[in-house]
Amino acid sequence: MLTCRQATQLLSEKQDRQLVLREQSNLQLHLLVCRSCRRYGKQIKTLSQLSKTFIKYDD
After folding, report:
1. How far apart, in whole angstroms, are the C-alpha atoms of residue 27 and residue 10?
2. DSSP codes joined into one string, 9-56
3. Domain ranges, residue 10
4. Rounded CA separation 51/47 (Å)
5. Model-level pTM?
6. Count: domains in the chain
7. CA 15, CA 4: separation in Å to the nearest integer?
8. Do 23 and 17 touch, CB atoms closer than 8 A?
9. Cβ atoms 5, 34 nearer than 8 A
10. How many CB atoms lie within 10 A of CB 30?
11. Cβ pair 7, 30 in contact under 8 A
12. Contacts from 32-37 at CB under 8 Å and sequence distance 24+?
């Protein structure tokens, strides 16, 4: 089982690269039981979407 630190690291890396199958499955297992990491994942996804929108309108 991943620690929260490992899970948040993978969530961050997921924004930049495709996770390998083992990373994906370990992360999903952790997210099933950890509310805080699920919330963190939603937050970084939202920030990523907002930054893409900002860059699009900045041009």
Report:
1. 7
2. HHHHHHTTSPPPHHHHHHHHHHHHH-HHHHHHHHHHHHHHHHHHHHHH
3. 4-58
4. 6
5. 0.84
6. 1
7. 17
8. no
9. no
10. 20
11. yes
12. 34/4, 34/7, 36/4, 37/4, 37/7, 37/8, 37/11
Token output for 58: 């900045």
Question: In tens digits, what is the pLDDT along the chain, a chain of 59 residues?
Answer: 999 999 999 999 999 999 999 999 999 999 999 999 999 999 999 998 888 887 666 55
Helices 35-58 and 21-33 meet at what angle, rounded to 10? 120
Distance CA 51, CA 30 (A): 27
The one-letter amino acid at 40: Y
Radius of gyration over alpha carbons of the chain, in Å?
A: 13
Q: Crossing angle for the helix pair 4-14 and 21-33, nearest 10 degrees?
A: 120
